[in-house]
Amino acid sequence: MASQVYHDYTGFTNVTSFSDAFNNFNQIESLNVFEKLWGSYYYYMGNDIFATGLLFFCVHELFYFGRCLPWFIIERIPYFDKYRIQETKLPSNQEQWECLKSVLTSHFLVEAFPIWFFHPLCKQIGISFQVPFPPITDILLQLTVFFVLEDAWHYWFHRGLHHGVFYKYIHKQHHRYAAPFGLAAEYAHPIEVALLGFGTVGIPIIWCIITKKLHLFTICVWIILRLFQAVDAHSGYEFPWSLHHFLPFWAGADHHDEHHHYFIGSYASSFRWWDFVLDTEAGPKGKQSREQKMKVQAEKKTQ
Ligand SMILES: [Zn+2]
Ligand SMILES: [Zn+2]
Question: Which SS3 state, helix, strand or coil, does residue 75 take?
Fold first, then answer.
């Protein structure tokens, strides 16, 4: 059965390779290059369930490790040492290798199975995968909503994971590295991966159940951006051009590194507002801002 990625295949010639598929889609002038590539991929694969599963698995591997690679190189160039947040020594090659093995095992054993159920689930709840894609304004709005909601989910469940048995049996694994590095972003217990991963995958699903409006391409872009955010937050580097200098509410490595360093506080993933409003910012900077707030409040009372 041909893919359901497009509604009308009249005029399409026989397809034996990806470039044949692309040549067919290339004739549809109303599609942009991303839509043509997306359509060709599904059409060439000829099995939508397999195509979605493989696409998401490859996107995860490619963009996670692809984003770790520049950090891996930067760590080995002494020029960048002055930008390291913590002066402590980086974990050894052996320790990083252990981390890589653990992350890969979790990708292949834990994630490789449920991913094949993703396409049937999308069909069930109405996440579309056909071309053309929705308008860019819809995509941008949904990405913003996902970032804000995931951050809230992450803040509360991550904060919860720091309590008693949850920490001892689940979250302790992620805190093995007090000075994190990119690859350590997904170094976590499988229960933590599922719980915090729900913020990334479950929120778009709930969004679609409620609004009936979501495209698989948007989820793909969202996952890539979220992977970049997570890897960068663990990079261990703070540059004068880091994003939070331009967007003061963006968390970045500066924020999450303090969480690993001081262990208590700075629980959110992408933004600083939860930790700021609820007074849970980590480290000396957090302490200073808490003291400042208390001082302002005390002055107000005495006036
Ligand atoms: Zn933690
Ligand atoms: Zn972390």
Answer: coil
